[in-house]
Description:
Blueprint: E1 5-10, E2 27-32, H1 36-42, E3 48-50, H2 59-64, E4 70-72, H3 83-88, E5 92-94, H4 100-103, H5 108-122, H6 124-132, E6 150-154, H7 158-169, E7 173-177, E8 189-190, H8 194-200, E9 203-206, H9 220-223, E10 230-234, H10 243-252, E11 255-260, H11 275-280, E12 286-288, H12 297-317
Parallel strand pairs: 1-2, 1-3, 3-4, 4-5, 6-7, 6-9, 7-8, 9-10, 10-11, 11-12
Helix pairs in contact: 5-7
Amino acid sequence: MPRPRVLIFNDGYRWEDLADIPGDDLDVTCVPGGTRKQLLEQIADYDAYVPCLRIVVDKDVLDRAKRLKVIASQATGTDHLDLKLIEQRGIQLFTLKYDRELLDNITTTAELAWGLLMCCARKLPECFDASRQGYWGRHQFAGIQLNGKTLGIVGVGRLGTMMVQYGNAFRMRVLGYDPHPKILPPGVQLVSSIEELLAQSDFVSLHVHLTDETRNLLNAERLAKMKPGASIINTSRGGLIDETALIREMESGRIAAAGLDIIDGEWLEDKYNHPLIAYSRRNPRLYITPHVGGTSPDAVRMTARHNFQKVVRYFLEHPIR
């Protein structure tokens, strides 16, 4: 019986991290830091693919993946995948979106979101840069106190709940907006509209999936109605925000700061000239990290092992003939 072939493109772990998982009946190729060109050249020879977030699985990829049966994405978001085409091709798709028992123990993204909030509140990167130069302009880099300020959380699910807890610990008033609330944690007041949340919040943190409904959730009209001097935190997906409008509102001063772990189109080769990246070089209050929210080694190893086990189980139940 032939062994299923598995192609892993990854940025955060080594094959050795998964070596003790029973997978002897699989032929696995691990390509750290692989490129789109490499993927297009190799995908035709594989039965399963574990994608990275940098390379979109689109029609060009799927047209070459004639024998592909499984895609197992080590992420909760799916904007790097052509979901409709994957379904049309009959390819089994696994993601981490509904693996709540695992995800409840993965706190790295929420922790980064809070770190970005602290940068917005206390101008920490500017302080670091100043002290490296021996400059001690304390009043120039004065930030704001969080105690008594309002934190607005869009999407009070797993990560949103963690942010509620962090906001409570810093004695903030916490508002939440969620059109599909489930079990709300203590310490958050649910509001009826996102506009109400934006008008009252000093800090707005986004924790929703990117879908057709949520794309440009913070559009130009809503950004223009935010509380003057507010800050935005986004560790979800770049497409949630109208980036052109964000730049405009930051230039006007309505939005004082933004902390982003993602940009729309982060899979593009030329990120240096991406509008947000370019603007961050002109405005030091736009803090952008390169999608590192979930990439701490311990968290990556946990999710990688969990994800690869799905591939192992699939081929135990559906052997190659």
